[in-house]
Design a protein that fits this description.
Blueprint (H helix, E strand, L loop, with lengths): L4 H4 L5 E4 L21 E2 L17 E6 L9 H13 L4 H4 L2 E5 L13 H18 L3 H6 L2 E3 L8 H5 L6 E4 L6 H8 L1 H4 L1
Helix pairs in contact: 2-4
Length: about 190
């Protein structure tokens, strides 16, 4: 599936490091996260996306799958997305960074196949278009994949047309690994 011209203009590698302790402060050095502003994760700050983005921070909304993969995951993701974006105008929605992070991948070393991640993120983008401002808004909204992202799988993940970047967790704690993730385009 080719990337639409509207999305192609906005397609950049967005890497957000959600480390622990002092490492979390390092995310400020990656300007792609909010064009120079520090990023703030909805994981650390609860509430609707409209309450995020103050003081120049990027707004993050995470949606994902539970530990058990079942047929109800798509409806669950739609409810999470709708609740987080409730009350936002289309121009506000497209400023939110959405991350798909399957719970079953966190800390396990398991990752969705790039094709599976693409399928889920395409469904998220479709939901954005239908419920939150149309396809143009959906195309301009950055959607990241986060689930055991590593230097060894980032290139295949980023080849997918609807994946705009990566939400990096544990791999961000290893400076060399994280640097290879950030520089994957140069290294492939």
């Amino acid at each position: 599936m080719p990337v639409s011209p509207a999305r192609d203009a906005h397609r950049v590698l967005t890497v957000a490091a959600l480390g622990v302790g002092a490492r979390a402060a390092d995310q400020r050095s990656f300007p792609a996260c909010g064009q120079g502003a520090p990023c703030e994760s909805s994981r650390r700050r609860r509430g609707p996306a409209r309450d995020l983005g103050r003081a120049g921070t990027a707004s993050f909304v995470e949606v994902g799958d539970g530990r058990d993969l079942d047929a109800g995951q798509s409806a669950r993701r739609a409810r999470e997305l709708d609740a987080a974006l409730a009350g936002l105008k289309p121009d506000q929605v497209e400023k939110v960074v959405i991350a798909y992070e399957p719970v079953w991948a966190i800390g396990t070393g398991k990752t969705a196949t790039p094709e599976d991640a693409q399928e889920v993120i395409d469904a998220i983008r479709d939901r954005l278009g239908k419920a939150h401002g149309g396809r143009a808004v959906a195309d301009r909204t950055r959607i990241l994949y986060g689930g055991s992202v590593k230097a060894s799988n980032i290139a295949a993940i980023m080849e997918q047309p609807d994946i705009d970047g990566a939400l990096v967790g544990g791999a961000s704690l290893d400076a060399d690994e994280f640097a290879r993730i950030c520089r994957f385009a140069e290294l492939t």
